[in-house]
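User: Modeling request: complex.
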Amino acid sequence: MKTLIVIGTRPEAIKMAPLISMLNETREIETQVCVTAQHRHMLDSMLKFFGIRPDYDLDIMAADQSLLAMTSRALAGLENVLSDARPDLVLVQGDTSTTFSAALSAHYKQIAVGHVEAGLRTGDLSAPWPEEANRRLTSVLAKYHFAPTSRARENLLREGILESTIHVTGNTVIDSLLHTAKRLRTSEAQRNELDRRFGFLNRDKRLILVTGHRRENIGDGIDSVCDALTELARRKDVEIVFPVHLNPRVKDSVYRRLADVPGVFLIEPQDYLSFVYLMDRSTLVVTDSGGVQEEAPALGKPVLVTRSVTERPEALAAGTSRMVGTDRAMILDESTRLLDDAKAYAAMAHAENPYGDGKASQRIRDTLVSAC
Ligand code: UD1
Ligand code: UDP
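Assistant: Request completed. Predicted assembly structure:
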């Protein structure tokens, strides 16, 4: 079987890396990788870390381009790649514009589609936007649905997806996370190097790690999160570290509001090893990221989710994350409660793996091999 894996953004690279490496060792399957490069720097840093060398690179990123412009460029580029590579199966991940463009391109070329991380739903097309639409549209087109959890499977069944095409595998992000966390644990040299790199952080203070990039939060939402962080940073016992997403509309707001706030460190997007190190060092994570909502519970870190709705209810149910929206007072109250109430903190800070056991890629590979 000839497969083409298409990825475009940072999380797609992190989540497809373990599958790429597993398929590369699988005799029955020939694997090629196409990057649309919807992200450039944030993708390249991941390709380098995971040692992925793409066979095709569409290089479609342009500063702050519209969704339609980006999608059109992806579709045009994919037409040529699919004609050249002639795969039997196109594998896509998640819910980005790359995911949907690659699924649609494959369908138009009558090539089967496998969807990794299938079945996540909020039920609300406006949140996350445009991802809820991207993943629903991809489900319509896919032949194999690799659902990370049984809830995701149920979502697909409710939409009439054939049961025999759904495979519950866990999320491949946990494969990557466990592998990377082990690398950190076992390499003292690497830990020392990271301690040096983050020497500006004070070990005597508790660390709050923040990320944010959702399009529906751009503007008032991000501003309000920044106001809550400004207030939180007044505490003498905490420091805030915020690797800022490169979307200019996110970056401009965050730098405008937080660049001069003492106790807040705005840093560049981090390579995966450094980010896992920061998650591991943190007391609390504040984020609207999908991937981080899956990783932090596995590391036993409480997460405050700066969204109004999530497609990842498993962590809420496990008690390791809480939805706070972008309301300044709510973020402040919940953070303060976790910082000051040891019992409330302990209730959330227990390691749970609702998203997988680190063997998701193996299960996906096994399913594909038995279909060969
Ligand atoms: C995209 C995905 C989102 C995913 C997120 C992960 C879509 C519509 N959105 O959102 O689902 O959760 O990635 O981070 O598919 N930029 C750079 N350098 C980079 C990356 C981005 O400069 O390495 C800037 C560019 O100006 C780019 C902008 O960020 O135009 C937005 O990037 P884009 O991929 O369109 O959307 P994201 O908001 O990053
Ligand atoms: N991440 C990273 N460096 C950073 C910020 C995030 O490696 O500076 C990782 C994080 O561990 C997670 C993924 O990137 O695996 C999440 O990406 P993002 O938040 O951009 O996208 P989402 O998951 O929301 O689609």
